[in-house]
Design brief:
The chain has 121 residues and is mainly alpha-helical. The chain has one domain (11-116): Orthogonal Bundle (Arc Repressor Mutant, subunit A), CATH 1.10.10. The protein is 54% helix and 12% strand.
């Protein structure tokens, strides 16, 4: 008899997966600038269509990153404070101490494409 494997997704993995897309990260950045944002306003920051924004909002909501409140025909989104705290805690665990590493420093630490590609004879 085949065994079925029940996979439980680590909540931290689900949180990080939800943020691992440029559009969803743009949505989160937009929400950090204000208390809440109407769903219709995300198309300007994300440069994608409304159905695509709705898809990404759904993923973020299912991961517990954002919460929604309907007001008439509009839906307003905000960051869930517990999700923001968990991100801070994860960063602290990974870095040992809260610090900011500029993206330019990360790029400088990577070997150049030429250094990674062996020379052809």
């Amino acid at each position: 008899m085949p065994r079925t494997k029940t996979t439980l997704i680590d909540p931290d993995v689900q949180l990080l997966q939800a943020l691992a897309h440029p559009t969803r990260l743009a949505i989160l950045r937009e929400l950090t600038d204000t208390n809440e944002v109407c769903a219709c306003d995300f198309t300007s920051c994300c440069d994608v269509s409304q159905p695509t924004v709705s898809h990404h909002l759904k993923i973020l909501k299912e991961a517990g990153v954002i919460a929604a409140e309907r007001r008439g025909t509009w839906i307003y989104y905000r960051i869930v404070p517990a999700a923001a705290e968990r991100l801070r805690a994860l960063a602290g665990e990974l870095l040992g101490a809260p610090q900011v590493i500029p993206a330019s420093a990360l790029m400088a630490a990577r070997p150049s494409r030429d250094a990674r590609t062996p020379a052809r004879a």
